[in-house]
Structures are given as structure tokens and as C-alpha cells.
Design brief:
The complex is a heterodimer of chains A (114) and B (114). Chain A is mainly β. Chain A is 0% helix and 58% strand. Chain B is mainly beta. Classes of the chains: A mainly beta (114), B mainly beta (114).
Chain lengths: 114, 114
């Protein structure tokens, strides 16, 4: 069983505050890590894909880092806005049964309060 | 234009019935997927097709049968529906076979089996 864990499960942030949360995954058999943003009643949308240890990606106020040696990634939201409210999914490409497949975490649900 | 579309959006049916969910992508991608969102909100891969060829077939009851008439379409047929099949089913597509590739998701089909 491949464990992809995201912590915390949910968090509430005051508008304007910054926040971050984690994704941990098995460091062996790793190829890439994806972050998706999933708003209520919509489809998951890709934010980033990272492959190399130490990778950092940024999109507006959202950024992510990757540590493949210890098997974790952080996602940061700077100056949170109400439109940042969503569930953030991480999904590593992990080798399973001789093929790489995405394994999704359960997500961290972020609620930004105005 | 919707990149990945699914029909129907909602499906309510009786136990024992046979039903199909359709998926179409207009992105020109070679690979398509079906995911099931389980009761704990995890997205779990069911099937994947690359250029109409089945490449991922997870441990799914054989009542579920995917069919890809061309690389832009991947339909999911479910025979003898059971209560436990109630879930949200997501279709997705990616440019290539998925390793490191971003997946684009459809809006989901909420299946309720009574």
C-alpha cells in the first residue's frame, strides 16, 4: 500500500495571512509530484509538477517545494485571498506493478475567511 | 469550449441496472483515465487508455468495462450496479502516458445507486 499523506486535513486562514501545508509520500520509486487545486463543484486543476529534489515552483501567490530524498513537498499560499479557498491535492507519480501511476492524497481543504 | 467533458453529470439508478458514462476530450491528448472518488474523498485510478489501448487496469470488479472508440473518447460501462458503486467518477486526459504529464479532469459524474 502506497501512503500519500497530506497534513492538515483542513485549515482556516484569515484573509491576508500566509499558510502552508505538507504532502508526504514514499521516497522510493518516485518520478514526479503534482499539485492540483480543486474548488467545490469544479474539476481538479493542475498547479505544478516537480521532479527534481530541491525543485521550487511558483504561480502567483502560490509556491511549492520538493524534497525527494525524505519524501515530502510543501505548498505555500502567501497573503491568502477568499478565492484561494479550495482543496489542494498532491499526487506523486509512483512506480507500482512495473508502471508509474498517480496516487492522490486526500487533500488539504483551505478556507480563507474575509 | 470544455476541454474534458462527461455525460451525464448526475445519474440516479436502481440496483441491478446497467449504465454508461461518457467522456470526451478535445485537447488532442493520447491518454485518458477513469477515476473513482471514494467515500474518503480519495481519487483512485480505475483504468487508463493510451491511443485506444488499455494500459492501466486496476483491481476493479469486472462489472466495470471501459471502452475507447477513438483516442478522444473513453466511456465507462457498469453492469449490475450495486449500492457500493455510488460515487463520483472523474474522467481525465494527458498528452502522453502520464508519467510526469499533467492530467486534465472532467467535471465528474455523480452516480447514485438506490
Amino acid at each position: 500500500i502506497l501512503n500519500v499523506e497530506q497534513s492538515p486535513q483542513s485549515l482556516h486562514v484569515q484573509e491576508g495571512d500566509s499558510t502552508n501545508f505538507t504532502c508526504s509520500f514514499p521516497s522510493s520509486n518516485f518520478y514526479a509530484l503534482h499539485w492540483y487545486r480543486w474548488e467545490t463543484a469544479k474539476s481538479p486543476e493542475a498547479l505544478f509538477v516537480m521532479t527534481l529534489n530541491g525543485d521550487e515552483k511558483k504561480k502567483g501567490r502560490i509556491s511549492a517545494t520538493l524534497n525527494t530524498k525524505e519524501g515530502y513537498s510543501y505548498l505555500y499560499i502567501k497573503g491568502s485571498q477568499p478565492e484561494d479557498s479550495a482543496t489542494y491535492l498532491c499526487a506523486p507519480d509512483l512506480l507500482r506493478s512495473n508502471d508509474y501511476k498517480l496516487s492522490f492524497g486526500a487533500g488539504t481543504t483551505v478556507t480563507v475567511r474575509a | 469550449d470544455t476541454a474534458v467533458s462527461q455525460t451525464p453529470k448526475y445519474l440516479v439508478t436502481q440496483m441491478g441496472n446497467d449504465k454508461s458514462i461518457k467522456c470526451e476530450q478535445n485537447l488532442g491528448h493520447d491518454t485518458m483515465y477513469w477515476y473513482k472518488q471514494d467515500s474518503k474523498k480519495f481519487l483512485k485510478i480505475m483504468f487508463s487508455y493510451n491511443n485506444k489501448e488499455l494500459i492501466i487496469n486496476e483491481t476493479v470488479p469486472n462489472r466495470f468495462s471501459p471502452k475507447s472508440p477513438d483516442k478522444a473518447h473513453l466511456n465507462l460501462h457498469i453492469n449490475s450496479l450495486e449500492l457500493g458503486d455510488s460515487a463520483v467518477y472523474f474522467c481525465a486526459s494527458s498528452q502522453d502516458k502520464g508519467v510526469g504529464d499533467t492530467q486534465y479532469f472532467g467535471p465528474g459524474t455523480r452516480l447514485t445507486v438506490l
